[in-house]
């Protein structure tokens, strides 16, 4: 039996995960569908951020506090390992974004545009560009 | 060798190249090449030592920082990844020797320091992926190698500005692939609470089949197949390989996708357990047909390319199809065929791309039309190309024949005749695209007024080393097939498999 209550608790009980999935889909869609190179990077960032949310949500222990030693023996801590993993993943995400933006700067210098379809048109126009690149 | 040093060998090769990379950047153009070459030669020597010590089936387990697994990160060397490490570091040494002249011609001298730094980082990443026994560590090294690979490909912009867009597209696709992989790992971690590969395998086996495991498996599979360019997730590869500098293409084509095939093998056979019927059916129903379509489509597209490097890139997609065919069969001979083809294709394709790089240096073009008559002007380079081409086709006495032999044998053993026939028939397609180059090079007259000299010795030697290996291991395959067969057995022995 699917009741209204069970649907609501499925949504509210896993709120982080639902939002993670929404962000994931939005990010992936933007990264694939946009023709503007910067917007693609924005989509990619959104996609990666959703994964950070997924990891951090899974590290949460009900009633647990931040994983800093309190000295009391009965303290419940959240799982710190996913946090550490995500610190690494954030660094990777930043490097990827930095490299992507650097490439976009170079692409704009070389083509004068950052729109994918215009770049494709220019590439078709100059089949043998090695003679023309400054 | 002192015992203490020997103990740290697994981590040393990764640390060494990692530390040498910033040195290259600091030293600048004058010394960068020497530092990179020295570092890669030492890494290769370490790999040879590791390979010879695991050849008898021992497994070296190295605990980073002295923290025992499954809490700490473990580097685990068995025969399979020692074999992959040998390929990666060996190709790196040969490519670096080759790169000195090629890179000077194709990339502005002010960038050489950074170029070799990125090259070493890429090598670090690939070796790290191969050696680590920790699933999240795979992701970290994967991104180290990928990010430096994007930068390396973009350095092709000095010759062809389209390298920039190729690198950008590869970055988007590669990052999506790596993120899928991380999502999959996250789900597996949720299920088991561990990231150590051996521990993960045990706990997943205890859990049995469930929906989170299936979802995690799919994410990992899609992420990795995007990275290794399985048809139809291959769209980044032709642009990236055809526009990157020649030395980069030779290195990446021989190592990057091969290491991804290794990770896929490791996850499929050592981590996910095969009593898990869902996995076997995904491989046989989804991956196997896609591999077959990929072989045919990519080979046909290759026939119609005028750019030699682009043709070889499409051929790479087809060859990756053979590796996937072997592992999708889910049998011990199939896995062995995949591993042996991984080695064979690495040396063959590196030799071919090196030949293409020699054409770039001496003829200034990779257009097959403009390379008419090149066989008379550059006999040694073209001869190496022919050897590589024959190996792609799978002519006897070349390594390509050995791979196809084992692959066909694996499919016949399972009674899958149509696939075996397709493997043989697809050789005809490879023959068609190799023949186009051979015909243009030997049977046509050179264009008027073009002067082309033979490539310098420092490029011919690494190229012929690889071409020679393609023949040597094609005649006497006992070493490679023994290593591949033991690696396949180790992979199967490492998991609690139930083989049909």
Structure description:
- The complex is a heterodimer of chains A (134) and B (500).
- In chain A, helix 3 runs antiparallel to helix 4.
- Chain A has one domain (4-131): Helix Hairpins (Orthogonal Bundle), CATH 1.10.287.3510.
- Chain A is mainly α.
- Chain A starts with a helix and ends in a 9-residue tail after the last helix.
- Chain A has five helices and no strands.
- The mean pLDDT of chain A is 86.
- Chain B has 20 helices and two strands.
- Mean pLDDT of chain B is 89; it is low at 495-500.
- Chain B has helices at residues 3-7, 9-27, 29-54, 79-106, 112-131, 135-154, 162-192, 197-207, 211-227, 236-243, 246-271, 277-303, 308-328, 332-363, 374-377, 379-393, 399-413, 417-443, 457-475, 478-493; strands at 60-63, 74-77.
- Helices cover 77% and strands 2% of the residues of chain B.
- Chain B is mostly helical and 500 residues long.
- Chain B has a domain at 274-500.
- The longest helix of chain B has 32 residues, at 332-363.
- In chain B, 63% of the residues are buried.
- Chain B has a two-stranded antiparallel ribbon with strand order 1-2.
């Amino acid at each position: 039996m699917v009741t209204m209550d069970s649907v609501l608790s499925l949504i509210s009980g896993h709120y982080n995960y639902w939002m993670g999935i929404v962000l994931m889909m939005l990010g992936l869609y933007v990264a694939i569908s946009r023709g503007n190179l910067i917007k693609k990077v924005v989509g990619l960032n959104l996609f990666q951020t959703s994964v950070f949310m997924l990891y951090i949500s899974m590290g949460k222990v009900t009633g647990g506090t931040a994983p800093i030693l309190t000295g009391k023996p009965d303290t419940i801590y959240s799982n710190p390992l996913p946090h550490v993993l995500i610190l690494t993943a954030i660094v990777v995400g930043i490097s990827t974004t930095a490299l992507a933006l650097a490439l976009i700067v170079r692409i704009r210098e070389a083509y004068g545009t950052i729109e994918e379809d215009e770049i494709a048109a220019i590439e078709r126009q100059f089949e043998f560009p090695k003679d023309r690149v400054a | 060798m002192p015992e203490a040093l020997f103990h740290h060998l697994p981590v040393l090769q990764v640390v060494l190249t990692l530390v040498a990379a910033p040195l290259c950047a600091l030293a600048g153009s004058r010394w960068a090449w020497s530092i990179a070459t020295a570092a890669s030669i030492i890494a290769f020597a370490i790999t040879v030592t590791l390979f010879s010590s695991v050849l008898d089936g021992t497994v070296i387990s190295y605990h980073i920082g002295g923290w025992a697994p499954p809490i700490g990160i473990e580097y685990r060397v068995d025969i399979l990844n020692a074999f992959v490490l040998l390929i990666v570091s060996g190709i790196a040494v040969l490519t670096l020797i080759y790169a000195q002249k090629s890179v000077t011609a194709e990339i502005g001298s002010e960038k050489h320091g950074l170029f070799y730094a990125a090259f070493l980082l890429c090598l670090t990443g690939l070796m790290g992926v191969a050696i680590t026994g920790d699933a999240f560590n795979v992701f970290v090294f994967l991104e180290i190698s990928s990010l430096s690979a994007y930068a390396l490909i973009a350095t092709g912009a000095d010759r062809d500005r389209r390298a920039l867009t190729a690198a950008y597209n590869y970055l988007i696709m590669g990052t999506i692939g790596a993120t899928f992989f991380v999502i999959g790992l996250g789900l597996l971690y949720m299920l088991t609470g561990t990231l150590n590969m051996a521990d993960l395998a045990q706990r997943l086996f205890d859990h049995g089949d469930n929906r989170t495991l299936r979802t995690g498996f799919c994410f990992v599979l899609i992420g990795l197949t995007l990275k290794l360019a399985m048809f139809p997730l291959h769209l980044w590869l032709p642009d990236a390989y055809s526009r990157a500098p020649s030395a980069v293409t030779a290195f990446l084509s021989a190592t990057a996708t091969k290491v991804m095939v290794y990770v896929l093998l490791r996850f499929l056979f050592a981590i996910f357990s095969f009593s898990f019927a869902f996995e076997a059916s995904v491989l046989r129903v989804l991956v196997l047909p896609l591999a077959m379509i990929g072989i045919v489509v990519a080979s046909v597209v290759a026939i119609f390319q005028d750019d030699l490097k682009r043709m070889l890139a499409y051929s790479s997609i087809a060859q990756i199809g053979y590796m996937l065919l072997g592992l999708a069969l889910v049998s011990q001979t199939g896995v062995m065929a995949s591993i042996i083809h991984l080695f064979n294709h690495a040396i063959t394709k590196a030799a071919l791309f090196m030949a293409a790089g020699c054409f770039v240096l001496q003829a200034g073009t990779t257009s097959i039309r403009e390379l008419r008559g090149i066989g008379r002007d550059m006999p040694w380079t073209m001869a190496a190309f022919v050897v590589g081409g024959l190996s792609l086709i799978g002519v006897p006495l070349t390594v390509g024949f050995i791979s196809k032999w084992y692959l066909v044998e694996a499919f016949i053993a399972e009674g899958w005749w149509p696939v075996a026939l397709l493997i043989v028939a697809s050789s005809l397609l490879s023959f068609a695209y190799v023949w186009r180059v051979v015909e243009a090079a030997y049977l046509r007259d050179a264009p008027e007024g073009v002067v082309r000299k033979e490539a310098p010795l420092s490029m011919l030697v690494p190229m012929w080393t690889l071409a020679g290996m393609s023949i040597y291991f094609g005649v006497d395959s006992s070493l490679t097939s023994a290593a591949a067969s033991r690696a396949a057995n180790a992979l199967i022995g490492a998991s609690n498999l139930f083989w049909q």
